Every structure is written in structure tokens, then in C-alpha cells.
């Protein structure tokens, strides 16, 4: 239904099979869908809008679809006083595997890794003609292969984390520790050392060391600020930074290794997977 479906999902489903969308049980929905996707206004009455659903074009519904599943303009006995009934609450899916295809696809478009994994599992079930548990094992092997090169791909990230952590930790004694400050001054700065009475507290030591530490820290901060600006402008130009580039290379590698499965599900799963869990 329009009110419950995002434009992205409508485009995805419409691009797959436009006959899925009907209005009032007729094929009029195909032209209306084109108008909706183009951004133009569609002259639909509330009675037509009420039946804008994902049936198969001849008013037949899946047995699990109730008569009110796509309606927001009729009374719904699944709710009482604007709250769900106990019977309806008991039917809520408790896992991704219990969700319908439409729900899984919606969550895939929104970036849920678990939903993308479930979508790939169902694609494996279809292609290999196996049950869900067996397909899940295949997807686990795909995940292992997907992560096989991640340690090398993520080496710049590990290096950056370690470098930032080391410099951040070292900055404290370089500013506030008397022995470290005096040693650094003697070896690299050679500034005039204040009287001992002016170095009795860590704040006094910091005041002395700040004369040379401020330019270093300030310049380093400015460099990172400029790099962030460059990255944001590169993204605006459509240039992929390193992380996005790696995701694309990895997903293409998985599609090449497993050509029997649908590439869109492989790409979704590969790009949202990560070395220490999931990206989204």
C-alpha cells in the first residue's frame, strides 16, 4: 500500500514485476505506478487507494493475507482502541526468517544486515532447492569467504586506530609530565626553563610545554579537518573513498565466485558484512 511502502521499495518491486501493483483489482495500477515513480500526481480516490495492494493482478490473495492487510480506511478487528489485540500480537514475527518477502526486501533496502542475510538464504534455497537450515550453512560459508581478505583490506583502519591511540596517549605526558616535558625541551626545543617554583603543578608544566605543543597539536587537528572536508567534497562529486571502494571490489569478487546466486542479494550481503560483526 502507498501509505506503508517507501518509494525505494515501490521502485524495486515495480522494476521486478509491474503487474504486482493493481488498483481496485484492475490493471490500471501499472500506469498509476509509472506516474507515482515519475513524481506526478495520480487521481486516485480513497476507495481506489484503499485497494492499492500487492496482489497478483486478478484479485487473488495468498491464503495468509487477510482481507484487511492492505487497508487503512476500514475497521480492523486486529486492533481495539487503537491498540493491537493479544491474538494479533502473538502472530508478530520473532525472527527475520519468519518475515514475509516484502518485509525482508523493505529492510534490505533500509540497510539491515540480518535482513540481507535472510534474503540471500532464501535465494540459495531457490537456486539449490534446499531447506532453510541447509541454505543458512551455505550463506555461512559465503560469509567466511567474504571475510577472508578483510584483515588485509582493513589494515589501513587498524593502522589508523593504533596510530591515533598511541599519539593520543603520548600527548598527555608530553604536555603535563615534568620529566617528559624537560627531556623533550632539552632534546628538541631548547627553550628557557622556568624557575622550579613555576613547575610545581601539572598545570604549570602544561603552561610551559604548551608554547611548543600548541602548534603541533593545532596543525595536526587542522590537517584532519582539511582531510574531512576533502572527503566530503569527493563524495559529493561521486568519487568513492577507500572504504566504499573496498566494498565494491569485495561484492564483485563474491558475485564472480558465486555466479549461480542473484547478484543483488550477494552485493547487499557482502557490503553490509564486516570483520567484527556488521556495518549496519
From TrEMBL:
Extent of Basic and acidic residues compositional bias: 58-68
Put simply, this protein is called Uncharacterized protein
For this UniProt record, give its keywords in alphabetical order, as a comma-separated list.
Answer: Membrane, Transmembrane, Transmembrane helix
Q: Where is this region: Disordered?
A: 51-78
Domain of life here? Eukaryota
Q: What is the protein's species of origin?
A: Chaetoceros debilis
| Residues passing through the membrane, by range | 154-176, 212-230
